[in-house]
Amino acid sequence: MKRVLAMLVENKPGALARVVGLFHQRGYNIESLNVAPVDDGSYSRLTVSTRGTESAVEQIMKQINKLIDIIKVADLTEGEHHELELALIKLGKIKDLKSIKKKIKPLNGKVIKNDSSSCVLSVTGTSIDINNLIKSLKRNKIIETVRSGSIGLHESNKTLTI
Amino acid sequence: MKLSGGDMLLRALREEGVKFIFGYPGGAALHIYDAIFRQKKIEHILVRHEQGATHAADGYARATGKPGVVFVTSGPGATNAITGLATAFMDSIPLVVISGQVASHLIGTDSFQETDMMGVSRPIVKHSYLVQKTEDIPAIISEAFHVATTGRPGPVVIDIPKDITAPENKFEYKKPVKVNLRSYQPKIHPHPGQIKKAAKAILSSERPVIYAGGGAIISNASKQLKALNKILNIPVTNTLMGLGSYPAKDKHFMGMLGMHGTYQANMAMHKADLILAIGARFDDRITNTPSKFAPDARIIHIDVDPASISKIINADIPIVGQVKESLDALIKEIKRSKIKIDSEAIGKWNKQITEWTQLHGLDHEMYLKKSKSKMIKPQEVVQQIYQATKGDAYVTSDVGQHQMFAAQYYHFNKPRRWINSGGLGTMGFGLPAAMGVKLAFPKKEVVCITGEGSIQMCIQELSTCLQYGLPVKIININNQALGMVRQWQDMQYSGRYAASTYEESLPDFVKLAEAYGHKGFKVTQRNKLGPTLEKVFRMKDKLVFVDVYVDQSEHVYPMLVAPNGSMEDMWLSKGKKA
Ligand SMILES: Cc1ncc(C[n+]2csc(CCOP(=O)(O)OP(=O)(O)O)c2C)c(N)n1
Ligand SMILES: [Mg+2]
After folding, report:
1. How far apart are CA B412 and CA B393, in angstroms?
2. Chain A contacts of B152, Cβ < 8 Å?
3. Ligand 1 proximity of B288 Cβ (cutoff 6 Å)
């Protein structure tokens, strides 16, 4: 089952390597990973998507928590949460801009650039939404895709803060 | 007063109460070594290989409960320390390993003797630091000691680039304030609700077992363990790491459990209706096939490390906290409880254990008195050592059959007396560990029970022992083979001894010991064993190496049947299953 884990990590050298290394050491996969400093910049917020049974995820969370630089960790998928991913998609020259615009509209899509050689789109949505969009664009020539990986936070009253 | 990085380092270590540093110098560490020269309070022990330094510091830590400190240089010095770091990590031993690193501006350029120590050691340390500013040294040292020694202890690496300790760069030494990390707050006291549940479960059980591991020793909880069982009177078993946490001479002690545990301990675990796991982690050398583990037992698991709980075996009542504090709370709760343990059921259970012991328990007479064998049996060597040292020695060991025989036949009545690499199983651990113990307790008897395979992995430390006058006793149980490997080859590979013998290439250990300036004896006859050992242990200020030739065909039993066995599936002797 897919899990989205959120963590607060001290902004110290090597801290990210410890988290990533741990997944590998303990035999878990990272499907996507997103990281950036938040608040006063003294720590970063990580979002990791992974797959595993309930007990496997419980074990990986305990192991993550054991890392000295980890301040907090939570499994967002345990309850209601918001999850979003950003993707940039570069297409080859397109004939029908209107239909593309229609497709990306539900994903807050924008046409960042469109000229005679290529067209660059930006979209945001859940990972599944983006997967589906990419599938639906198959008839166009997709030159390049980049995805931020999921980021997420709890529903309104639950938080992961210091 | 302003201090250089090197002087700051030594001062910070002194403030942590460090008495010994085990180490080996080299280019990147020379500023630090010069700072050692400028002070007198901390003694530096020059080993002969960095692996020896880490094991010696580790032995010191296990025997004293205080962190061991190691200095190594960059590159090969750092990588030579890796085995010792992994050994300490697996057994939760507090070490602070300080490695020199190439100068900051050279990092990342493949410069001479550059190894990414932070990267190489990452999966086998509790935490690590790269020092980036000289002024940070006091704070980093105090944080490192805090991390290494609290919660579930473990080794910490501090990598210091050479420029950071340069004598010309001096800074004000700022005494660090008390360490308080927002990201690291290990739990000490257990949850009272869980303690209540545990007490109730224990008091309503009919076939309970106490299964105590290394955590009971690390947490200094022997007194609590004894006090708890004074009330309960239930059978107790120890893991390899937990030996000594509960006195072996107590009538409720069943001996070690697991792979080479006693028949009664393994049977008791399998048939129990309640297992109280204390600072033990359900290692695969204990549980055998996890799905067949203790089918009828409810599990109470006390551990300071939440990640150890329900990792292998699901705990019905998890208790996160220090073993000592948790047992204190449990004892209080049991005393207060209105439920009384069913003493009739417990009496019946204890009787069952006695029957198992009588049926297939280790025969502590067989080798010593009854044996008609001309050849010396390895078990008897351990028994004779026990007698000659009156059971009161610090015993270090290596890895293999001799280690298991030592665990089975040397009865440990006190904690921190049995010093061995349980988790990683590191051959070469025994001799350097014995050096660390002897430095900590110069007046106590320190014995290294080893094998001719293992001892050769760190034999160079005999030289260190001469330099610092460390009269440990080395008893080499010489079966002329990598005995444990050979045993597996007997049992699983029809006796095909691939690379487990030395073909007449063993050194003359007596001459070897003498070449290093020590005393050596060789024993091949049974009737000479006792008298030789008596003599050896009277030679108080000499390191003595006793090379005892033993029966090569001996196996360690009992042995859990694997794969797919449960804890009641045991080999009891060659070809005979329980
Ligand atoms: C560094 C290391 N290498 C390999 C092993 C695998 N191993 C475990 S026991 C053993 C044999 C040890 O031989 P010896 O020290 O003579 O002890 P014996 O079993 O003969 O008593 C070996 C090779 C190990 N534990 N450690
Ligand atoms: Mg051997």
Report:
1. 9
2. 66
3. no
Using one digit for the tens of pLDDT, what is the confidence trace for A31-42? 999 999 999 999
Inter-chain residue contact A21 with B123, CB threshold 8 Å: yes
Q: Which residues of A touch B147 (CB under 8 A)?
A: 68
The dihedrals phi and psi of B105, each to the nearest 5 degrees, come to -70, -15
Q: Do B183 and A21 touch (CB under 8 A)?
A: no
Residue B368 has pLDDT above 70, yes or no: no
SS3 of residue B237 by DSSP: strand
Q: Do B130 and A70 touch (CB under 8 A)?
A: no
Helix axes B483-492, B401-409, angle to 10 degrees: 100
- Chain B touched by A59 (CB under 8 Å): yes
With beta carbons under 8 A apart, name residues in chain A contacting B305.
66
Mapped to the 3 state alphabet, what secondary structure does B524-566 carry?
CCHHHHHHHHHHHHHCCCCCEEEEEECCCCCCCCCEECCCCCC
Strand order across the beta sheet in which B570-573 lies: B559-560, B570-573, B576-577
DSSP code, position B380: H
Distance B262 CA to ligand 2 centre (A): 22
Full set of structural domains in chain A with CATH: 2-78 (3.30.70.260), 81-151 (3.30.70.1150)
Question: Which residues on neighbouring strands pair with residue B478, listed in sequence order?
Answer: B549
CA angle at B498 for the pair B432 and B523, rounded to the nearest 5°: 50
Q: Which helix H or strand E contains A37, and what residues bound it?
A: strand A32-38
Best CA proximity match to B524, nearest among B370, B365, B373, B369: B373
If we measure between CA atoms, which residue out of B433, B378, B426 comes closest to residue B548? B378
Contact A128, A2 (CB under 8 A): no
DSSP B181: B
Tokens read off for B438: 């002897």
Whether residue B147 and residue A63 make contact (CB cut-off 8 A), yes or no, is no
At residue A108, the 3 state secondary structure works out as coil
Q: Choose the catalytic residue: B126, B162, B438, B522.
A: B162
Token pair, residue A28, equals 């878990």
Instruction: Give contacts of B132 with chain A, Cβ < 8 Å.
Output: 13
Structure tokens at B89: 């990590």
Are B520 and B532 contacting, i.e. CB atoms less than 8 angstroms apart? no
What is the ipTM score, two decimals? Answer: 0.94
What's B100's DSSP letter? Answer: E
A129: closest CA among A162, A92, A82? A82
Q: What's B140's DSSP letter?
A: H
Residues B61 and B436: beta-carbon distance below 8 Å: yes
- Give the whole-number percent of chain B exceeding pLDDT 70: 99
State pLDDT tens for residues B64-81.
Answer: 999 999 999 999 999 999
Q: Would you say the CB of residue B283 lies under 6 angstroms from ligand 1?
A: no
Burial of A30 (0-12, 13-18, 19+ CB in 10 A): middle
- Active-site annotation holds for B366: no
Q: Which of residues 67-86 of A touch B (CB under 8 A)?
A: 68-71
For chain A, count helices (H), then strands (E): 4, 9
Q: What is the pLDDT of residue B86?
A: 99
Per-residue pLDDT reduced to its tens digit, A75-112:
999 999 999 999 999 999 998 999 999 999 999 999 99
Hey, are the CB atoms on B307 and A62 less than 8 Å from each other?
Answer: yes
Q: What does the buried/exposed string (b/e) look like for B532-558 if buried means 16 or more CB atoms within 10 Å of the residue's CB?
A: bbeebbeeeeebbbbbbbbeeebbbbb
Q: Is B427 in the pocket of ligand 1 (CB under 6 A)?
A: yes
Question: Is the separation of the CB atoms in B566 and B288 below 8 Å?
Answer: yes
Taking the C-alpha atoms of residue B307 and residue B281, their distance in angstroms, rounded to an integer, is 10
Nearest to B475 by CA among B545, B389, B410: B545
With a 6 Å cutoff on the Cβ, whether B84 touches ligand 1 is no
Model pTM score: 0.97
Say yes or no: CB of residue B400 within 6 Å of ligand 1: yes
